[in-house]
Amino acid sequence: MPEFRMPSLGADMTAGTLLEWLVHEGDPVHRGDVVAVVDTDKAAIEVECFEDGVVDRLLVQPGQKVPVGAALASIRAGEGAVAALETGPAPLETAAAPLEAPAPAGPLVTSPLVRRLAAERGLDLAAVPATGTGGVVHRRDLPQAPAPRTGRVAHRRESVRASPLARRLAAAGGLDLAEIGPGAKDGTVHAADVRRALAGHPTAEPTRAAAPTRPARTAPAARGEAMRRAIGELMERSNREIPHYYLTQSVDLAAAMAWLHQRNRELPVTQRLLPAALLLAATAQAAAQVPQLNGHWRDGGFAPSSTVELGTVVSLRGGGILVPVVHDVANRSVVELMAAARDLAERARAGRLRSSDLRPASLTVSNLGEQGVDSVLGVIHPPQVAMVGFGTVQERPWAVDGLLGVRPVVVVSLAADHRASDGAVGARLLHRIDRLLQRPEEL
Amino acid sequence: MKPEQARAVLNQALLDIVPDALPEALPDDADLRQELELDSLDFVELVERLSARLGARIEEDDYPQLRTMGSAVAFLAGRSEPAARRRSS
């Protein structure tokens, strides 16, 4: 019988805490359904199911912390399947032995779903008696809980189409998106619609500052500490185990920027491209051409990845980083890549990542262009064997054909694992990135 | 669009992106990206929202005019008022 297991949601995750089940035993589930909410040390993540079938048994209770790979539930595939014997999970810490850090911060430790439901019903989570470990409020604690639904429970919130910002605003203001109704002709609830509704809503939050619309900024200190620790442990391991070598190369972006400028005149404003999209595209194609740097170091050897799964470092406004992954990058157009990267960054910052966004990366890119630095000498995220960094695109004097001109220039850097490759291979990757960026129309 | 309307449109767009901002408190010479800590993605979103509100494309060449509160208000006011209407009024 297939098992639904604790997924690895990032290289720095060794265990996760089940916050909430979104399905019941006996519910049918489909591949891609969000069936549970899991807390890594860095964020609460909506976890998708990888099987079609029926939930047979839920093996882990909310509040339990179990290692990556532990069975969370058994799934019966199709009809006629028979319930098989299950060995219990191996909880690291059970409900009786609560997790170390989470202070009884009450509503702050609840799952996104509970926060959303509470907001929709205008409930103050601090006033809800919590039954979960460490004062965690579960969905069952909320008064007026709707009758348990079977079927594709997790897709319920998709019934109202709304922009992410509209969702955040509505949740912050205690409004039900379904009651607001779309104001625009496209049938989608936009932030402006929510603001209009909020203006005439009696229970709306009176102060904007109090609205938790940017969770990263208002994240509790405990979350910040846990994230710091998770990043620290991974980086410590990286520096302890990986013999890094570093290479940098300055790349003339005149052709790339001109192409981008031209494309942006043709594309709808909603698809406007940023230089970062080209840099990601070039990195992905170069990585596909230099497979020695695209993959994982496992059991004393290098295992190349058949696709380029590009981890993109997103720095959160309140501090810390998340590294969501753009799937199969080498086969996507620049426009698709831009949309994907933008969507991931927005959801990472809004605390709305899903397990599929955190699948294992085969290579990570750190773009510190926003920070005004010249270059990035990164720390590899094990088990990957390389990290590509981009500094700020800056106007620089540049010699072309014996003449000095001023060009937009970016320093591309590579940190690579000397166990898996040598400098010549690393140099080849940087040269490929350079060459690809000279012919942006082919990306 | 009168400057007051343009300012209201700009304030709303900024609030949609940075909900805890106080755009009405920003002086005219305030650099939007610096004051509100907008990164490139935020700025692209601002351009998208303003374009939608104007009903006209804002090109990359226009970005310098969106640098400060004052220059952005002037740009929006000027952009949304066709020459014909300006003559007839």
User: How much is the average pLDDT of chain A?
Assistant: 79
* Order of helix and strand elements from N to C terminus of chain B: HHHHH
Cα end-to-end separation of chain B: 12 Å
Helix content of chain A: 25-40%
Give a quick account of the main beta sheet of chain B: strands, pairing sense, barrel closure: none
Shape of chain A, please? globular
Helix content of chain B: 55-70%
C-alpha-based Rg of chain B, rounded? 13 Å
- Ranges of chain A where pLDDT stays below 50 over 5 or more residues in a row are 80-109, 145-159, 202-219
Oligomerization state:
heterodimer
β-sheet strand percentage of chain B: under 5%
Structural class of chain A: alpha+beta
Q: Which strand-content bin applies to the residues of chain A?
A: 15-25%
In total, how many beta strands of chain A?
19
DSSP summary: helix tally of chain A: 10
Provide the residue-averaged pLDDT of chain B.
87
- DSSP E strands of chain B, number: 0
Description:
The complex is a heterodimer of chains A (443) and B (89). Chain A is an alpha+beta fold and 443 residues long. Helices cover 27% and strands 22% of the residues of chain A. Chain A contains 10 helices and 19 strands. In chain A, a hairpin with a 5-residue loop joins strand 13 and strand 14 (321-322). Chain A is globular. The model of chain A is unreliable at 80-109, 145-159 and 202-219 (pLDDT under 50). By secondary structure, chain B is mainly α. Chain B has 5 helices and no strands. The longest helix of chain B has 15 residues, at 3-17. Chain B starts with a helix and ends with a helix. The interface between A and B is medium-sized, with 27 and 20 residues.
